[in-house]
Amino acid sequence: MERAKHSVEQVRQVYSGFQAWGDFVDAAPYGSGHINDTYKVSVRLAGTPAHYLAQRINHAIFKEPDKLMENVMRVTGHLGRKLAAAGDADATRKALTVIPARDGLPFVRDAEGNWWRMYLFIEQAQTYDIIESERQAYEAARAFARFQNLLADLPAPRLHETIPAFHNTLSRLKALDAAIAADACGRKAGVAAEIAFIDERREQCGRLLARNARGEIPERITHNDTKINNVMLDDATATGVCVIDLDTVMPGLALYDFGDMVRSATAAAKEDEQDVSKVGSRIAMFEALARGYLSEAAFLVPAEVEELVFSGRLITLTIAIRFLTDYLSGDVYFRTHRPGQNLDRCRTQLQMVRSLEAQAAAMEAIVRGISRPGS
Ligand code: ADP
Ligand code: GN1
Ligand code: MG
User: Fold this and answer.
1) In the chain, % of residues over pLDDT 70
2) Strand partners, 48
3) 111-125 pLDDT, tens per residue?
4) Where do runs of H (alpha helix) occur along 158-281?
5) What is the mean pLDDT of residues 82-88?
6) How far is the CA of 92 from the centre of ligand 1 (A)?
7) φ and ψ at residue 70, rounded to 5 degrees
8) Residues 6+ apart with CB under 8 A from 241
9) Domains annotated on the chain, with CATH
10) Whose CA is nearest to atom 17 of ligand 2?
11) Of the N and C termini of the chain, which has fewer Cβ atoms inside 10 Å?
């Protein structure tokens, strides 16, 4: 879907609904996320420039934004309390801070019925669409593992499932089959090769679901969108500062989080690269990810470690299935900026699957060679 545009005036209006310090100066679209509408808000705070991050929650995708924000409040509150208890001097950079609305709620509704939230803007850190160094990969993976670790003792009740069956590859296949059958935009004939590639891998798609159902792989609180541009890395040190994009934090499998890091952080090219010859998984980045993740994820059981390499292929195939489904359905889910972009995204993901398959044995050897904390 094309980016929904909001004028500076509209964002100014939204800003005035929050209990935020500072005189509004400007608002500009920000980031490269596919789902929400994100704006960097510039203000003057007693004469000093300061920023906030305002977001319109995509309520076509997240059907119950109030429940989503309830999750976000619980998660950010838990992380913030732990950082404060540890006396961390940088706590407001390490966990997102939700700015309350004037009525005390964690969101503002606008005249069109949109839902907006606002965070403190995290400074001196940034996100990367393509990881540039092994150190970045190592630190990003450590940050996501630490995030899982810190949330392991989140008090009951269970978090809301903001998108049910989000990483259920079998449900994603069913949705693809329905989109192929409907062929709503007459695009099916052009994607026979992609459909055939996915068909050859159908029997792998239930593997983690089956191991979870058998009790071998536990449910945990996971992030579920560990795309590499959802973690902010410090400008000076490259350490992982803050895990962001908390819309899908909910019960899930740790392996899906690791798998999506492999998909996004080992990629040598952009997710929508049109020249597929540039696309592939970089094994040095894989090694850095695995080392970083395992250095913090002491909670993993052996069955999870066994599936780390497979999880990268599975999640990449799953995202390919989702991009293809969206292309066939007329680009209704992921934001697109040009025709054919979701098909290009699907093709890069399938090329990544090929590359991950070709390097699977070497990746397995890397995981076996990493000693884990406590072992
Ligand atoms: P989406 O769900 O659309 O991906 P994100 O929550 O990931 O939206 O935000 C989009 C981008 O905005 C991120 O990739 C990041 O670069 C930036 N961003 C998000 N939250 C903050 C924040 N609190 N401080 C600074 N930058 C942020
Ligand atoms: C979306 O929100 P963003 O851009 O970080 C999507 C992920 C996909 C990713 C593919 C809620 O992530 O599941 O893996 O695009 N988020 C949602 O780039 O569907
Ligand atoms: Mg994001």
Assistant:
1) 98
2) 45
3) 999 999 999 999 999
4) 169-182, 192-199, 207-213, 254-265
5) 96
6) 15
7) -60, -45
8) 90, 93, 94, 122, 125, 143, 232, 233, 234
9) 8-123 (3.30.200.20), 134-368 (3.90.1200.10)
10) 35
11) C
